[in-house]
Task: structure prediction
Amino acid sequence: MSPSAVSTVIDPQARRRVIAATLIGNFMEWFDFAVYGFVATIIGATFFPAGDATSQLLASLAVFGVAFFFRPLGGAVFGYIGDKIGRRTSLALAIIIMSVATALIGVLPGYAGIGVAAPILLVTIRCIQGLSVGGEWTGASSFLVEYAPDRKRGLWASLIAATAALGIIGGSGAVFLLSNVLSVEDMNSFGWRIPFLLALPIGLVGLFMRMKLEDTPVFQEIKRTGERVNPFKHIGKGGIRNILIAFAFSSATGTGFYFFATYFVSYLNVTLDFPRPTAILLSMLALVLYAILCPIVGAFSDRFGRRISYILGCAGLAVMVIPVFLMMATRNFGLALLGLGIYAVFVSALVVMSSVTIVEFFPPKIRLTAGAIGYNLGVGPVAGMGPLVAAALVAATGNPLSPAYYLAGLMAVVALVLLKFLPETYKRSLYAEHDQTGRPSAIRGSEPPVEVDHK
Result:
């Protein structure tokens, strides 16, 4: 039986709309991520009782971290919606909840205004953000990859990874600009709230764009063939095994990226005594390079496979992360940038592969649920604690290379796990079921849609 007419033709214009609508939410997620990190000191002073600045900062960072522990739950909830009701519905809910929650931080009264209710409400909002973010990355990845041409799935998924860097650059750039335009008093009073408030109009635009889309061809085929099921009842032993593998590669991906996106700024500034503007510049230049590398990595994986790309990324970081830290430790701008550039090569491989492999790895009926659980268990509690573990290691040992040893060990272990257990996925049909060995079994009556290329 051939697929229905609605899913047989994918117009290039529709694909372009899919790209824009999918990436806007991902950009906003990482924009907020960067903004919160850059104004953490102000948030600590605004929402927590007067005391020493260090205690307030630690409190604000703890609130920042609590969202990571809610990501797996959010992944399960939004994954279920995506598998049972529709990919588009899941993405639309995720972006509106995330944008409203982010904007609420921008209008939330501080401790001086409402007392202890201020930190309680801030924690509550961060938990809601964690839930919505848990559905955003895997939902966006699935939506984009399920629309992508079969031979360009890695290239298309690389846009998700690149947009994360652009969101961080945009968020940190917005705070940096406001800090230079406004006085310290104005920045501490109202200026820090402006980037959070921007989330609401961006989210509304993203919601409008997402609601204008049709659901993915894969989900349309699932509906047509009557294959919609309760994903939690159909994960099975093979699915649990694959969730654990996804947990392993997502732990490496998330830890490697959070080091790159957040920890290195503090490390360069606090541990290595680079001036903060210099540390920010180095980080932003490295993120630009990373964004440029992402499509190259995606195209490489389309040609040679996800498995080799992922293993090279993990093994490369395991071998090179200590030399990278040594380059930064020279306190020479050029060598530090070279080290960060080397790091960007390998971490871009991890993040791009995570975006596409998490979609190809699971069968269509449980794809969002199982993928989101495995991914968010890795990038949430495990990877989210990575920068804190790194800072704690430096404080406990006095050795500025101790975070490098930790990261090298993690990458080496995950590389071995992937070498042993990760199957190749780049030639899999997204319309097919697969057992844990990767053998296909198609959705009843389904075939992939016809590709239409209008020159």
